[in-house]
Amino acid sequence: MVRLAAEHAQFLGWMAQDQDETGAALAWYDRSHEWALEAGDPNMAASTLNMKAHMAWSRRRAERCVGLAEASRWSAPGASLGVRGMAAQMAGRGQALAVRGDDARRVLDEAEELIGRAAERPEDEPPWPYFYDETWFTLQRGMALMHLRAWPRAIEHLTAGLAALSGDYRRDRTWYRACLARSLAGAGEPDAALALALDIVPHAAEVGRPHSWNELHTTPAMLLRRAPRARRHLVAALRAEG
C-alpha cells in the first residue's frame, strides 16, 4: 500500500508540475520519495529525484538539475536500467544547459547505452516510464544539442525524433516542434523557422502552456538580428493568441 501511495504521489507531483504549480509539485515529489524509501522501492525513489531534476531544468537551474540527477544515480543503485538511464539523461541535459559540452555528451552517451540495455529487458522496468524509449531519447538529445547551440545536429535529432513520435502525443509534439523552430532560427534558416513557429502557435496556445508556449517565445529573439521582419510577424501571431 505504501508503494502504491508513492506511485500516486509521484503522479500528483507530475500533474502539479505540468500546471506550473511548483510548490505543490515539490511537496508531492518529496512525499513520494519518502514513501518510496519506506516501501523499499528504488525505482520510485530515483524517479522522484529525476522529476525534481526535470523541474530544475525547466526553470534553467543547471547546477540544481545536475545535482539532483546525480543524487538519483548514486542514492538508488538498485534502480532499473531504464530509470538509471533517465537519471543520466537528466544529468546530461543539465550539463548542456550549463554549456559544458564534453560533460553533456559523455553522460548522454552513457544514458543511451543504459536505454539500449533496458529495451532488451522491458519486463525489468517499472510501468510509469512507459514513454521512455529511443525515440524520446533522440528528442531529448536534440534539446541538449540546442542548449549547446549545435544547431545542425539539434535539427537532425529533433527532426528524426518527431518523425517517429506518435501523433497521439500532441503536447509533446508541440514542445519539440517549438525546439525545432528555435534551432532552425539559430541555424540561420529564418523562413523555415517562421513557417514552423506560425504553425505551432495555435497548438501551443491550446495545449502547450506553459512549456511549449514559453519555448516558442524564444524564437523571436533568435530572429531579431537575422530576420527582423520574420520576428515581427511571429511576435504579432503570439500576441494575437494571448
Can you describe this structure?
The protein is mostly helical. The chain is 79% helix and 0% strand. It has 13 helices and no strands. It has helices at 2-18, 22-39, 42-58, 62-75, 81-97, 101-120, 134-147, 151-164, 170-186, 190-207, 211-216, 219-223, 228-240. The longest helix is centred in the middle third of the chain and has 20 residues, at 101-120.
> How would you spell out the order of helices and strands?
HHHHHHHHHHHHH
Rg over CA atoms, rounded to whole Å, is 18 Å
Total strand segments: 0
Instruction: Give the percentage of residues in beta strands.
Output: under 5%
Number of helices: 13
- Poorly predicted tracts of residues: none
* Biggest sheet layout: none
Helix content: over 70%
Shape: globular
Keywords:
mainly alpha; 242 residues
Give the helices and strands, then pairings:
Layout: H1 2-18, H2 22-39, H3 42-58, H4 62-75, H5 81-97, H6 101-120, H7 134-147, H8 151-164, H9 170-186, H10 190-207, H11 211-216, H12 219-223, H13 228-240
Helix pairs in contact: 1-2, 1-3, 2-3, 3-4, 3-5, 4-5, 5-6, 5-7, 6-7, 7-8, 7-9, 8-9, 9-10, 10-13
Summarize the structure.
The protein has helices at 2-18, 22-39, 42-58, 62-75, 81-97, 101-120, 134-147, 151-164, 170-186, 190-207, 211-216, 219-223, 228-240.
